[in-house]
Amino acid sequence: MNRCPGVHLELSVTTDRNLFVMASAGSDDAMKKAEKEIMARLQIQVSSGLVSAHQELMEENVSISVPIQKQFHRSIIGWGGSTIRRIQKETNTNVSVPPQNSKSNEIIIEGQKGNCEAAKRLMLGLQEELTLMSFQVTVRVNPRHFPRLIGPKGVLVQYISDEHNVKVCFPEKKHEKQDQITITGYKNRVLEAQKVILDTVSRQGGRVTEDVTLDRRVHQKIIDGEGERGLQFILDKFKVAVTFPETGDPDPDRVLVTGLPKLVIRAIDELTHLQGTYLWEMTQEAEDHALPPPVLL
Asked: Helices 261-290 & 187-203, crossing angle to 10 degrees?
């Protein structure tokens, strides 16, 4: 304001944070000139401040991608878009999910960096929770037991689903594998529901088929094993049938165990124990062969 000679200025800030300027001058011309200069200066400052704020805002805006398994995209969107709207509202971001027919699993988040990171954490947390909820087992049961498991108007299967917070699916009529019941949910809840189903079948004297994953390298060792280390011991003790995969099977580690439900579970435990024993011995054997020969002095 030094360009307004002969003008006395007093500046103060009001309680509502407005700037108050008081000017006094010896003539009307000097006062008008001072008023013009003050307004020009204030406009420049305001304009400069807006440009600076806009630039700062633009610099903070980022776009990040988050890999989310394709199977969980619908859950990220939610019923009618409810979940994705909640994430956007809570984090003040814009979230874009790739179209259903796209091969990409990348979800794009746009907004200020801190907000984008917050949205990313929410989605990764949701994915982790969905993964835990996606544990699945398949129980093979003769379809003649289905009416008893389902109950009148589906009351029993609904009770199992509600009590253990799982999803129990019976095969559709056109499904090629009519003896498969699928249970999905948290692992501990799924295993509890599986036990209820197996116990129900067992009380009816029914047999079930369960699959167990056994490393293909130990299959022959279990078949040829003697005493408690062999297949014959398990067959005799638990009265079950064990089917190993044939050459060229798409899943060469999958072994089927058939028998009374409780005995099938115990036989699977025994097979899993044998697998651990044989794999440990194979590891020790490989390490022994890897040792250099002793040096003779």
From this structure: 130
Q: Is-contact 251 245, C-beta < 8 A? A: yes
Phi, psi for 100 (deg, rounded to 5): -60, -35
Check residue 291 and report its DSSP letter. S
Average pLDDT over residues 266-283: 93
Coil, strand or helix: which one is 26?
Answer: coil
Q: What is the reported pTM? A: 0.52
What are 109's two structure tokens? 């988040």
CA nearest to 255, candidates 239, 265, 268, 238: 268
Predicted pLDDT at 216: 93
Helix H or strand E segment including 236? helix 231-238
Q: State how far the Cα of 53 lies from the Cα of 65, in Å rounded to an integer.
A: 26
* Torsion over CA: 278, 279, 280, 286 (sign): positive
CB 124, CB 66: distance < 8 Å: yes
The sheet carrying 208-213 orders its strands as 167-169, 180-185, 135-141, 208-213, 254-259, 241-243
| Contact of 164 with 193, CB cutoff 8 Å | yes
Q: Is the pLDDT of residue 9 over 70?
A: no
- The pair of structure tokens assigned to 258 is 């058939």
Using a pLDDT cut of 90, give the percent of the chain over it: 46
Q: Are 190 and 166 in contact (CB under 8 A)?
A: yes
Which residues make Cβ contacts (< 8 Å) with residue 112, sequence separation at least 6?
60, 61, 62, 92, 93
Is 131 within 8 Å of 83 (Cβ atoms)? no
Q: What mean pLDDT do residues 262-274 have?
A: 92
Q: 218 Cβ partners below 8 Å, 6+ apart?
A: 274, 275, 278, 279, 282
